Amino acid sequence: MASNPPNLRPDISNPRLERDMSRVRPASQPTIGMVSLGCPKALVDSERILTRLRAEGYGISPEYSGADAVIVNTCGFLDSAKAESLEAIGEALAENGRVIVTGCLGAEPDYITGAHPKVLAVTGPHQYEQVLDAVHRAVPPDPDPFVDLLPARGVSLTPRHYSYLKISEGCNHACRFCIIPDMRGKLASRPHRAVMREAEKLVEGGVRELLVISQDTSAYGTDWKDRGSKAPITDLARDLGSLGAWVRLHYVYPYPHVRDLVPLMETGGVLPYLDIPFQHAHPDTLRRMARPAAAARTLDEIAAWRAACPDITLRSTFIVGYPGETEEEFQTLLDWLDEAQLDRVGCFQYENVAGARSNALPDHVAPEVKQDRWDRFMAKAQEISEAKLAAKVGRSLEVIVDLVEEDAATCRTRGDAPEIDGHLYIDEGHEGLSPGDIVTVTVDEAGEYDLWGTLAKTPART
């Protein structure tokens, strides 16, 4: 799991959060700090909690010392994530002393209180009301109607020009290595109109890119008893694509109806980008994972997606060193990756997770073998990435600007998601750009994961 981004930590001040929340601040107003760990879905939960608190009159502190209490939104997906969460809780206790714990690890309250008995309260994932109740008990609200005016898009922990849009909670899969269904429950999709209303407000507030997230995005709406279509995600994607912002789909399982999403990408309504968790390619490994084991058919699906949308960017994640994985099975994964030629790839070494059924499988792989396979996998992925990016030299690409500094502007192409993919850098003529601008760039140079380019002569679209 990636470590927590510094700008989401209250001990490392977020300049925009500090600016937005400190304009008019009565000395008596109670303030809350937030540490948000884990995936973007947890980040959305943190934003919702902070938005509710802000509406009730709480100030949001960007540092421990300025907070009357600190909320730690934890991750519990892997043992390493649990360790990071416990460390963050301990740090907050040491720096502030008044700590409320929520999030995925909150589903194991005894595990948390056993390590940190002084926490004020522990709540589970997406238990917003319980978190607010805990804050009210620890730090009673003191609302002031003259200053407690909530911005239209609420409190955001991401830059102004992009936002995560969570469309459902939970998951109906039963992968042996995953405990997400145990922590977050079965699939529960948000109503179409509620998602669209939130998306419209975000775009009206200046968001240029909507990052659609869930545990299983392509299953959106399939839990509804009365639904107008077999695959409601297609209708939602079409409607989101009509708002004029970039729409990027994450965590899309390769169900057959994904083919209906791809034409939307070719016409420009949705970004030509699919983030699909394949996890492995050998059928025996996939069966031990309790995942669909038709890797050959997956290659056919990839070919169909590319035929329908030649510019599509495919991203996926994989696990190496899963219990029972043989060298032959791993080599099958390498060969499959060579044939699939995925554009963006992430890889994890298997870890036991308390409560996961995969812990009981025989033939666990030695740590040094897992490391060797990870190194070989990433070398192959890097080779593919380097070749694909080299083919973009000379092309004109549309990019969104994330950051403008003195020496360069950091941008992303339509095929790059924030935090997890590469960048395109403009190091000349970038002085007039601002975060959120969408401009056309001619690619001059390519590296292993990043591109460099110059502004094209076509006008910028801001």
TrEMBL record:
Binding-site residues for [4Fe-4S] cluster 2, renumbered to this chain: 171, 175, 178
Region entry Disordered, spans: 1-26
Classification via InterPro entries: Elp3/MiaA/NifB-like_rSAM, Methylthiotransferase, Methylthiotransferase_N, Methylthiotransferase_N_sf, NA-bd_OB-fold, Ribosomal_uS12_MeSTrfase_RimO, rSAM, rSAM_horseshoe
SUPFAM superfamilies cross-referenced by the UniProt entry: Radical SAM enzymes
Protein location: Cytoplasm
Essential cofactor(s): [4Fe-4S] cluster
EC annotation from Swiss-Prot or TrEMBL: 2.8.4.4
Cofactor remark from the record: Binds 2 [4Fe-4S] clusters. One cluster is coordinated with 3 cysteines and an exchangeable S-adenosyl-L-methionine.
Example GO molecular function: metal ion binding
The reaction(s) this protein catalyses: L-aspartate(89)-[ribosomal protein uS12]-hydrogen + (sulfur carrier)-SH + AH2 + 2 S-adenosyl-L-methionine = 3-methylsulfanyl-L-aspartate(89)-[ribosomal protein uS12]-hydrogen + (sulfur carrier)-H + 5'-deoxyadenosine + L-methionine + A + S-adenosyl-L-homocysteine + 2 H(+)
Domain MTTase N-terminal, chain residue ranges per copy: 30-140
Enzyme class: transferase
Keyword match Transferase: yes
Segments forming domain TRAM: 390-457
GO CC list: cytosol; ribosome
Domain Radical SAM core as annotated: residue spans: 157-387
Similarity annotation: Belongs to the methylthiotransferase family. RimO subfamily.
Name this protein carries in UniProt: Ribosomal protein uS12 methylthiotransferase RimO
Organism: Palleronia aestuarii
